[in-house]
Amino acid sequence: MAWFMDTYSVHQGYAVPEIVTGKPVAVGGTVGRREATGRGVVYLVERALNVLKIQPDKCTAVVQGFGNVGSVTALGLAYKSGMKVIALSDQYGAYHRADGIDVRAADKYAAEHGSLRGFDGADPMPADELLTLKCDVLVPAAVEAVITEHNASRLQCRILAEGANGPTTPAADRILFDRWAEIFVIPDILCNAGA
């Protein structure tokens, strides 16, 4: 991104840092950019819980995706909000532990191994069952179109916090609209805007 910015700036004859995002801090990037989206998800989940009059420390959370957004979200939900994170996943596997996963241990493991593959702090589970686990807060934080017309009716969360871009298909949106009294949706346009 620094190279893109530099190349554009050379053609303009002056520095134009606003041309791209994701630059190093030394050339106009933003401190905390990596954590911003996950932190925003946590803040919005806390606000939704407050509106619903639910105590965060009595909640369980499931986070699908353990990259920049998901890992920061899981850490925030566990250690800032006091929730019990009962399931995590990345592209290599899904893990569940009913009495809560040590998210710091999972984060350390992923940093050392490049993924959650082989993480022994929870039990492996089928990835396609992760989104339909019973929980208070569900955070799809990986890729688009994971909540579809095939699984939207089986979601068992109270809050759906869309940390990924477009995690819910239009057909699933229609199903969730009909379930508005059961599931409080924080849409991606707000939820993953960053804080």
Alpha plus pi helix count: 7
- Helicity range: 25-40%
Q: What is the tally of beta strands? A: 7
Uncertain parts: none
Measure the end-to-end span. Answer: 21 Å
- As a whole number of angstroms, the C-alpha radius of gyration is 18 Å
Global outline: globular
Mean pLDDT: 95
Largest sheet: 7 strands, mixed
**SSE pattern:** HHEHEEHEHEEHEH
What strand order characterises the main sheet? Answer: 4-3-2-1-5-6-7
Q: Classify the beta-strand content into a percent band.
A: 5-15%
Determine the structural class based on helices, strands and strand pairing: alpha/beta
Concise overview:
With 195 residues, this protein is an alpha/beta fold.
Describe the structure in your own words.
The chain is of the alpha/beta class. It is 37% helix and 15% strand. It is built from seven helices and seven strands. Strands 4-3-2-1-5-6-7 form a seven-stranded mixed β-sheet. It is globular. The two termini are 21 Å apart. The model has no long low-confidence stretch (mean pLDDT 95).
